[in-house]
Amino acid sequence: MPAIKVLKARPECASPLGLLGSFHDAKPTVLVTVVLLLCSLVCAQTASAGHEVNKDKLAPVEFSQAAEVSVPTRDSKHASELPIPQEKPKQHRGDFVFAPLPISSPALGSGIIPALGFIFPLSTRDKVSPPSVIGAAGLITDNGSRAFAAFGQIFLREDTYRATSVYFQGNLNYDLYGIGAAAGNAGVKLPLKQDGAIFLGEFLRVLKWKIFVGPRVLTGHSVITVRPGGSLDIPVPADANLDTKLTSMGFSVKRDTRPNRFYPVTGTLFEFTSDFFAESLGSKYSFQSYRTTFNKYWSLSRNQVLAYNAFLCATGGEPPFYGNCLYGTSNELRGYAAGRYIDRYMIATQAEYRLVLPWRFGLIGFAGIGGIAHSGHDLFRSNNFLPAAGTGLRFMLSKPHHVNLRADFGIGKNEHTFSMGVSEAF
Fold it and tell me: Contact 353/365 with Cβ under 8 angstroms?
């Protein structure tokens, strides 16, 4: 009797995914700057994890692995010879990614950031939540900076809840140029060393229309000392040689319509965070920090994406110098040393063209402009503008999620930078 062919169907991976990343809405200290750098390099940024499905763009079902199964009849004498159907493949539970990333920073020197991450679906039955991420990263540079960061971002109950935490500890050697655009342009610097630790926690719940709202807490301490050399024209920070504690309570609002987090090709991302530091919470300084991010993505073709990013920062109260807005951190913008330009208000906007090439490679080009100012209405004065442009290469670390290792060269107003990381800049 003719055999009956039984076809097994298996779903293919959804379109390439990209990571949030982004802990760049944490407290704007130099310590947090490196936390953000480490997290964006890894967590974000360390990505290649559980299979995140875009319901609107499911990949076509592939019919394969056909197994011929004979149907027994009365004339069948050897039923035991029937082929055994192939077992259904086990569902993928997650991926590890390790990246020893070289760093060459005008702020921290040259060295390496060893990063390890694991991306996984918290529940294999949850087809809505993006994959969760846990990981760790270190920092070792030739100017004596040493640091360690651990982080996690968990998605629960079909993306009803999102929990994020970051811990950082280490010492950073960097230069203080002073406050304001004029101080940054002058290029006169005071070498500092900052030792400390910091913890950030955030818990969000979805409301409607993919809007997440929830509280966040940030606490940490640090000691700043002046290193030999540098200019005496820059005043020594008031809290030098003192163990300074900062604690804040705040909230976050986010809306994310990207089909994935690791490599967005369509959709938007909106984030607003606020942190309120107060003496009643045990903080030495009382001030407020507000940050807003908006990203939008257009798919120009199968291998081309246009990405846009806008960022706003504002600070109120009486913050320490590192509690102000720091230009050049969190890839806002590439081409500037992190912390060279510091002030109460900051704006940055940039666009990036992304092209996928054969053999896992990719190419990008970006350009943008921003600025800092002591007041909001001074942000748009031409003498405060800080333009940047550059290009970069990509190499795909994970095909299922299109997780890229990136290397970017940026040129700013008076300097240039080279940076490497995991996942896209925004």
Answer: yes
